[in-house]
Amino acid sequence: MQSAADRRAAGSLGRRVQQIVQHPLDRPEMRTALESLATTYSYQPASAATTTTPYTQKHRDIRHEMLEHTHNIDREFVNKLAQVNSIFGELEDCVQALDQQCQHLRASINHTRSITANVATQASLLTEEQSELETRQDLAQLLLQKFVLSAKDSQTLQRQIDDEFFRVLDRLDRMRRECQGLMVGSRGESGQQGVSELLSELAQHQDQAYKHLLRWVLSQIRILNRDTPEFSMRLKQALGRLVAHEALFDSAVVEISAIRRESLHRAFITALTRGGPRGTPRPIEAHAADAQRFVGDMLAWVHQACASERELLDTLFSHSPSLQTQAQQQLLANVLEGVSRPLEIRVQQTIAELQTPSAVYRIDSLLEFYASMFASMCLPDTPFIRAVVQLAVLARDKLAQTLNALAETAIADSAHIAPTLDLPESLHLLLGALADIVHLYEGSTTMVLAETESKSTIADLVKQVLEHAYSETRSTIMQAEGLAEYEKRMLELNVLSAVSSTLDASTYKQLDISGHVERCQQQLEAELVQLLKTKSHLPFDSIATETQENVDVLADAVNQFNQSLKTAMDLDISRLVSRLSNHMWAQEISQHAARKFTEEYAELYKQIRGIMEHGAGDLLLTPETVATLL
Question: In terms of pTM, does the model score above 0.85?
Fold first, then answer.
């Protein structure tokens, strides 16, 4: 490979050779150029003769050589160019042939294009349809993954109940809800049909899963047939899942109520007959002789069992928030049916054996109290509540029957009154029984509940019995033979005195005894005044004219009246009212009667003194003296 210096020298030499060829040789410039060339190529002549050759000869030789060399190059170039021309000719033939083939292919392609234009259009449509189908296939796969259970999940729903089962069940519920939402938003019959098929399949899986869950729950519920059952958290979760399916949940609830009812019945019979473990506490029936304790222990046991059952049900259905309080109360009432019949039979027998009103009232009070307590825990219209309420009504009827029997005895005995006007013992027994009942009732829980619920109270029953007894006794007294009118009034006052002294102030006011007392006192006072006027033999109604015969008669009457006052026999009011049991009333009545008689006597005294100034008028005592003597 030539160096840069050689290339520069070759370029300079070429320029000089060109100058030599183009210019005459005899010019000075030419000579200088030739010398320079000679120097450059280090030209050495062959002999001395040669060295003496003039520059012209040298120039010619070089020029000749250069011409030959140029001719050789030209010939070689022409030969090479002829080869190139031949190659280009062949190339031109090939290009022409290739162009002909291209034209032929173009024609074939145009022909084929015209033939396959419809095919291409169809292929394009098929390609788009294929793309759409692939998209739908992807969506279908996503839907299948979202709305179709896998084989593993299907097996999980058929195996033992565990956390994985509840997870798959929740997923199945969620899938069905979402599929229902998809059903609402789908368009076209095909879309709705597909979603409907998915829903049908999911519903089938769900029904099978919940039936399997119900069978497991029913098998687990059997452990509730114990006094103190223990159940797992999964049982509560299972009941919480069954709430959404009313029929299945009702089946479970019915089974639970039946098992707990049987268990409670067995426990109640054990408490009645055998008592607690190792005899502590003692059997409830061991205290059957004490009616109040016997009935109270049974009701207290049932109340404690009711509270325990409610707590058990609250815990069991803690995962069922949609279960309303009313449904729980209904379930509790169904469970308590197990003790209804044994409790009802024993309480009925106990009530039937009671004789005294106070003992019956104690049972009535217990039943009223516990009936109110049970009503707050259970629904009112249930067999257990109806049984307790009927027992309370039975006790109240028994109480009313016992009191009415005592009242009827007192009424019958009031027809046979001793001359001393003492009340019959049966009436004292009736009033004592009523007083005991009122004393127990006042301030008791039963009274508070009755007033709160606006129910019929014991005070109403006492008032009814007293009013009936008083009305019938008064009627019997008024029809009694052998008694004067004022004695009948005094006997009636003795009855009212016994009532007022036996009952407390509130019942006294409620029965309006004070009105009856005031009425009887006024009537007795009027009858006593009339009795005094009759026994005085004085002409209070009218005074006869002043004749000797009339004056003598009036003088005899005045003398007899004066003698009666002095002896204090017929006109002694205190002796007349001494048979009143209430001495304060007797004193008030005697004073009022004496005052009224004195007032009327003063009027008579004025009339007699005005008619007759001597004789009988002188014997007539002054009103002040009569008042003092009376």
Answer: no
